[in-house]
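Contributing new records

If you add data, match the layout below exactly. Sequence lines come first and carry their own label; structure lines follow with theirs. Keep one chain per record. Anything else will be rejected by the validation script.
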Amino acid sequence: MAEKFVKKATSEKFAVGLKYKTPDLLAGETVIGVTVGISPEGLTVVGDPQISADGREVSQMISGGNSGVNYEVLFKVTTSVGHIYNRPGKDSVLVKVV
């Protein structure tokens, strides 16, 4: 999984997320749990993180943020076989607020 990058205006609200595939997920393995952390403070999460119906994608609705600041939205996922992924730069989305 490679880090994803998005630009966002302070007034925008939308979901960011990641899609897991081989080799991160084995055949038949799915994401069963997810939490989200944001660094630095200032970008707001809206609601709970979501897992797609097929268990291979995670997302989080975000809003706000301060112009000129880069935020890392870090996903911590647990899979059906007990793997836990929480790798900065790999399980994260870089949000540049403009």
